[in-house]
Amino acid sequence: MGGPATLRGIAASPGIAVGRVWVLDQRKVKTPRRDLAPEEVPAEVRRLHLALAASDRQLAEVRRKVEQLEGTEHTAIIDMHRMMLKDELLVAEAERLVREERVNAEWAVKRAVRKIKAAFSDVADPYFKERRADVDHVGARVIDNLLGEAPEVQEPPPEGAVVVARDLSPADTALLLHERKVAAFVTDLGTQTSHTAIVARALGVPAVVGVARVTQAAARGDWIVVDGARGLVVVGPTAGERDDYLQARERYLAHEREQLATRDLPATTLDGVTVRLVGNIEFAEEVEGLVAHGGEGVGLYRTEFLFLGRGDLPDEEEHYRNYRRVLEALAPRPVTIRTFDLGADKLPVGVKARAENPALGLRALRYCLRQPELFRPQLRGLLRAGRHGNLKVMFPMVSGVAELRAARRALADAAEELRREGQEVSLPPVGIMVELPSAALIADRLAAECDFLSIGTNDLIQYTLAIDRQDKEVAYLYRPLHLAVLRTLALICDAGKRAGIPVSMCGEMAGEPLYALVLLGLGLSELSMNGPSIPPVKRVLRAARAADGRALLDRLLALTAADDIERTVRDEMARHFPDLVGTEGPVGPAAG
Question: What is the pTM of this model?
Fold first, then answer.
């Protein structure tokens, strides 16, 4: 190739890798269409079911290999794909097309996949939008089996290679990471919530996704640099650039070792105040990386993944197995499991709901209370799983005391049912996410009726400022240090203190080291964030004084303009932690 090509994508998993490109051959096989004679239909239906069964066997074998290698538990995502293979939205729809429209099985699967993906396209939530790729991966596997194509990666990359692909299925990612010891991943497609990103972060492998056309820019054997923290990819770097990045890699690894040196130490300030640092997770795969970064438990376990790519509702046993797995993996550390945050903009595929404004419609707890057939199995599964660890239950999007009481009553009823059936269950601590201005304003009343409060800043800031962060026209107005936001946070924290219950934060604000001193000043007892954010936040807390945080907060609350507040915070942090402000951090070669 010519000179070096610098490409930018989405920073999916931090770290630096320098190696040779291994482009996976993922040429899209053209799906044939054929009209069937009536007498051919029964045999074609059998062929469809044989391909579904073959796909399930292959994924079961992938799961077995991954489970055996290093004793890992990175199997939940593969289990989800196996469930999709049995889901009626795929199976029944494909069979209907074969029988009624008399088309071949390959074309029927393609049409069924397209229908499911169309349902995901209407969802506003970017996490759920990303799940369209999961449906694609499952459909492609079935079609490959129908066509007699081997769906697995045929030629394994050498150890230390940088895998470049259009996209990667969870099965590909798991096998490549566990069997091949690849150095990094780069993909044309994907987001921070794609499974390649989730698994790469969990295992500490650098990854950049969403690098459009990287498969066209890179050829097998080319040198390549991957900077997973900055979302930077250099194809064909010069020898000098490779040396620079290798040195940067050593600096990064040294910085990581320094950060992780405090992994087992508490986040205790110089004046003796301890803040628990826990993690936000969506899959069991993330537990290992969380603990490796010093996570003291889980502050937010999102459960919406149980609905991904399916039309039926998860049953009680499925809930129980998933929650038990995470609780056992972390015991005796606490695990806060949030009940479904579903609504008009993110529902199981095939479940329809109309809403003029989904963000203000029937969602989260209010949706669950209206759908007992969905809520009851989750509550029963949670209570049963609670015997296997340190469970806390959290209800999302609570707007008032009536909703909290109704949710607690539903949980108590589920516990009583289980006891009548002869099962030993006890009610876990119950808390709420404070993410609505109405909840913040009556936080004192809510605090009197629950065991803990957890501030969800992502939604709280958006609702307080009427700003949609996904809307580029107004995203610049999203200001976590806006005076209205600070006053709201102080109101919630004060309510918790007066009620004698802990107050935590699980929004993105919690994982930003720049805000750590402010959050310390608010008196939060727990901060929940992504695993890699824990070491830098802990470093700030262990070198700070809670008294300084309270003094800073008082100064901020006396200001008015968000610009002035932000400038004051930056100046204060620059004075105490100069490397946190005005730099991209210790990843990548020195700027020049």
Answer: 0.72
